[in-house]
Amino acid sequence: MKGSSLIFRKNKSFICFCTLAMILVLISLLAPHIAPHDPLKTNMTKSLQGPSGEFLLGTDNLGRCLLSRLLYGALNSLKMTFSLVIIAFIVGTAMGMVSGYLGGIADTIVMRFSDVFLAFPGIIFAIAIAGVLGPSSINTVIALAVVDWVKYARVTRSLVMSVRKKDYIKAAKMGGAKEYKIILKYILPNIIPSLIVMATMDIGTMMLEISSLSFLGLGAQPPTPEWGYMLNEGRNYMQTVPGLMIYPGIAIFVTVMIFNLLGDGIRDMLDPNKEYGR
């Protein structure tokens, strides 16, 4: 208990950003209950209005409440981002475990397969896949997952190859432990902290990727509120009503910063070489 308190005292920034991340997620989940207006309801007589008592952040070109769309946009953006991170994490980790633990022909197949995806710029490849599948939120997540699993596979492979040489792994094999037990009981717990840090820091990056595809019209489709698509909708009014781009841009920036700094905090917490309380 004393060691844990020392760790948390030394990581006040981690606690701060963890709290901010939870608040952000909570706000997105409560969007249907706290949004002042229906984000899809249009009213052309009130289009492009500035902030007022009725519309705290004003309205867009179709008279929809901008604050309500930002709140619902948080829900949609975070839902897509977390889905992408989870898919890339699971697929990449599984492929990396197979490659790193089995070695041989399995390692060669997985690594050469990943080389195919690394041969092209990731975002360009994702745009091509999303273009073939068609514009939608689900297809955007699929397109980016096809690209983003590779880095998890390579990092996992490297970690597994390092851990499998340890003496306790050799002892487990000599003791007759089954392969799946060695992987789940001895290897995975030793590599999962590094992968969690990587996934946390990837949340911001993947949100930017999703927003980029939505900005290009390949992600969420109208009238669905999503921060990247809201940027696309507001670009024609940047000079007259800059808030249409500024507000979703700030939302993306703040969210990315929170999760990036949270990832840094988690990395410091899980770093076994860091000396706490000295």
Automatic annotation (TrEMBL):
Pfam family, one: OppC_N
Membrane topology: Multi-pass membrane protein
PROSITE patterns: ABC_TM1
Residues passing through the membrane, by range: 12-35, 82-103, 123-147, 183-208, 244-262
Compartment(s): Cell membrane
Top-level taxon in the UniProt lineage: Bacteria
Signal peptide annotation: none
Record-annotated ABC transmembrane type-1 domain positions: 74-263
InterPro entries assigned to the protein according to its UniProt record, in alphabetical order: ABC_transport_permease, BP-dependent_transpt_permease, MetI-like, MetI-like_sf, OppC_N
Keywords recorded for this protein, A-Z: Cell membrane, Membrane, Transmembrane, Transmembrane helix, Transport
Keyword hit for Phosphoprotein: no
Major subcellular site: membrane
Keyword Transmembrane: yes
PANTHER family reported for this sequence: OLIGOPEPTIDE TRANSPORT SYSTEM PERMEASE PROTEIN APPC, PEPTIDE ABC TRANSPORTER PERMEASE PROTEIN
NCBIfam families: Opp2C
Family membership: Belongs to the binding-protein-dependent transport system permease family.
Protein name listed in UniProt: ABC transporter permease
Native source species: Clostridium tanneri
